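If you are new to this repository, start here. Below is one unmodified record pulled from the training split, so you can see the exact layout before writing a loader.
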Amino acid sequence: MRTLDTAAEREEAAALVQDRHTCLIERGLAVPSGDDVPAQFRTARALSAGLFEDGRMLACLLPEATPDPEWGQGPCLFLRSLHTVPRHPEDITRLITLWASDFAARHDLPHVRAEAPTRQLRDAAPIARLLNRLIDMGWDLYGPGSGKAGEVARLYLNAEHRPGLGALIDCRIPAPQLPQRDRSTS
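And here is the target side for that same chain:
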């Protein structure tokens, strides 16, 4: 796991997002609504990260520390715009889950939160399978709601130190910084 520092890496992440969206649409699944997600990766304003194997990007995301998302309690690592390479034989989502839990714990964030789009184009079975898979990986379903990606399932994962994970996933992402509260409005 490392930050996407160059324009070429950010463009590769944008292309991965577009490929994932095309794959979801072909399978009749929900795609994030609202913001232009590929553009979020093209800009250098947001901290963007990628999971790489042998120089190939397998996943990209926008990790952010937040003091309290609208639907949670307390600080957390929020995984925004998580996308994986379509039709990859490895379970990339499991690797991201392990990494996120450990990363949050190493930086004294007690939880990881994420949102999965649930607006369906054809039927709810694929989203149910995805949510069941995530629950099997240790995620808790916090409940439905309106999120950054439209209608979403809110997911919650406890932070957990995983000492041996460094042998599997090298992490070169700086510690997330919680935003400073505006003291002038307090």
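Two things worth knowing about this chain: The longest helix spans residues 7-26. The longest strand covers residues 56-66.
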